[in-house]
Amino acid sequence: MKEIEIIPEREGQVQRKGNVSAPMACNKKSAAGSVSQRACVFCGSRVVLYPISDALHVVHGPIGCAAYTWDIRGSLSSGQQLHRNSFSTDLREMDVIYGGEKKLLLALRQLIARYKPKAAFIYSTCIVGVIGDDVEAVCRTMTAEAGIPVIPVHSEGFKGTKKDGYRAACEAVATLLGTGSTEDVKPHSVNILGDFNLAGETWIIKKYYERMGIQVVTCITGDAKIEDIRRAHGAKLNLVQCSGSMTHLAKMMEEKYGIPFKRVSYFGIEDMSAALYDTAKFFSNDPTIMQRAQDLVREEVGNIYPQLQAYREELQGKKAAIYVGGSFKAFSLVRALRLIGMQTAVVGSQTGGPDDYKQLAEICDEGTIIVDDSNPLELAKFVLEKDVDLFIGGVKERPIAYKLGVAFCDHNHERKEPLAGFVGMLNFAKEVYSSVMSPVWNFVPRRQPGRAHTGMPSAQEKSVSLEEKTP
Amino acid sequence: MSTLSSQTVSACASCNSFDCDPSTCSARQPVEEIVETAPFAASTEGITAATRNACKLCTPLGACLAFRGVEGAIPLLHGSQGCSTYIRRYLISHFREPIDIASSNFTEDSAVFGGSSNFKTAVKNLRRQYEPELIAVATTCLSETIGEDMKRLFHEYYAENWEEGHPHMVHVSTASYRGTHIDGFHNAVRALVETLAVSGPRTRRVNLLPGMVSTADLQHLKEILADFGLPYTLLPDYSESLDGETWAEYEKLPSGGTPMKAIAETGSAQLSIEFGHTIAGTKTAGQFLEEKFCVPCRSLGLPIGIGETDAFLETLGTASGRTVPAKYRQERGRLVDSLVDGHKYVFGKRAIVYGEEDLVAGLCAFLCEIGVEPVLCASGGESGRLEEAIKTAHPAPLRKSMAKMEIRGGVDFAEIGEDAERLKPDFLIGNSKGYKIAKKLNVPLIRCGFPIHDRIGGHRLLHLGYRGAQRLYDEIVNALLEAKQEGSEIGYSYL
Questions:
Q1: What distance in Å separates residue B303's CA from the closest CA in chain A?
Q2: Please, are residues B427 and B476 in contact by the beta-carbon 8 Å criterion?
């Protein structure tokens, strides 16, 4: 087989630590014809707003965009489950020719009457941006008519990258801020920005803060209700986890309401503890908060450390590849892997910035491959070159790993096991362990070179030769 | 390492606590109450302008799947990046195989000025990276709406870049506001033969155009064709490219698929067989081969169940000049024997069937053959020919009690859910997206078709032939037996 090569447009987006001359050439549109693992503007908006569970999420466009985002995130809700439906105006040819505004208005009228949501988000898809529907006007009309906020999300797929979709989602959320009562918001209070309550992760983190004596006003958007978002401006501090998606909102809130923000991560013991300590430092006027944070960390780490050590003994020296959406998560994963004895040989993200990649290089070992906006061929090449034992990624990366006989840990938004918090670190170690140590790898071609791919001719080829023999 | 469990810790669904035993949680609500706040609440007014939980997918998905069944082909979506990523994710979750679909990656500029330069760069990059034999282009709703003229783009591109050994290119128009994924699939197959078929002296070859079936179905069809001693072109054929072995080296384009040569030879075949009553007489690949190359097209239903499989095998018998091989006569005989053994367990049971129209017609025919009453046959497809297809697939007169069968095209899962509350079926049969309805009604879901996103091996499910009917039958009977067993306090271990 001819070797897989990096296409020339992408050469500045692949680095090897120890051999880097220029900053990562990231923040670029994906090269045409490369099978990027990225999605589109719409996707960025949809994943961020998806967990708001008492809102109606209506995708204005043909059916695909809505169909592929039906009930896909593992975001749990403590109340309504409206977000787990897929609503679409399902535009047809006539709508495209004559405009989809009337259909959108009627759809909203019917859906709001039926489901009585607390708000509605209307996502514009590619085609709406081309046919020029005035979605804003429809939203204004419905807001007046239904008495709930009907919010346009400017998420036309081609108008930028997934990051622009995050931004559009932040703008949509921002329209709700400042509209609720902050009466019961306490002096020691925070918002969690950029946690999506996958498998109940927000609940884990929230409980930690509550144990420290800190009120969590709102999580945007994990298990978020519209009422919570309306009063989020009352909190004293914003804690930004998914920085790629939520830094924009944090900056808006800082500017408008004077709420400072801190970047945190809840993955791995080190980052989780740092998140709690950083928050405690912010509320240093009450030293008992720091005391409680220390007690909490000691207790939680004490609970899981012996088990983590046992995993470490088994996993020591194994190598991993990481390819995730946001680069900030990649930092935590590098550290979390190190904690269980594993080394990161390949690390990349869809949307990292130059500083992120620089920082990644600092915490990685010599020779580590660092990559921006990669694709299946490159990832396969790196996995084989570094002979990794584990791949951490999402659904689109999973078959690359499995096809090559490499263990896999799903760290994307479809996961059903909580990986955040101290308990999440233990889950992470368990998941890594149960994939890496599986005996099935003994049978894959990579570990049994003598029994590689059979290379049997396909039945259709056989039929062709059969025909040739026929007089 | 005995202390190391692979059990992960999850939150209690009722109180969100991680220290709670969900089975004894005091905050636990009966399932009914939780569901009340969810969809499918009693309706007073119809929802006509919105689709809720679609029972269909978009046209480019079908086209991409069909293109993955051609040897050496790489699909290229001409449009935004998201389309290819979403479709890959959706297909990967079903097939659990790498599925590379490229995108020409439109920007705002391309939407305004056209995607010509993106297209050319995309082809160049694909050639370099994948070395394909075929670049199969599908135009998404974005490029269709801005009016991309692909004929002109191909022409321009070739004028500048043509060289010996350049991969073939084929284009299918897949605006997602026109039709559903199944239309994208059939249109892609038509585009392949339109572009690649050539005329030649008539051969014994049979073209089999099976439509969107599982990898196991494709394997089985190949076995049947070989057993009849017929040279054939099965188009598309993703039986290996989407159900392959584990690799030692990464295969840029997975092995398997209909060879390009075999597609070329469809123009000189003795016969085309095309599955799908709803597409009979429309602008299909088979129809094209008939018009252009005088290859007669025989339109059959998907061979699900006895009657439709009989028709398929008889057609092959005629084409090959052979009788049906003993192997299949025996399979049929054993199937009938098992239908007798289990008939009482299924007779009069009420089923809701949903999915692509031709799959629904085939399943409905089979259910009628075994005495199950399909109380609702539903599809998101809107060909307007579902009812006709069902009647063609099962021409026998229905029993009186079955005359009430409801047939609905163009519906979504919210509507199917609302109908299900009223119709109180004993089981559902269709893809995994109906799971929530089955769960709410507490009845079994017999998974078949596409997608199966909540089980492993969904693509390996066999539906076709006597063997497929046998598998379906066993699964239906056993699901009903299990429901009976589980629903009884007595704990029967002998049924």
A1: 21
A2: yes
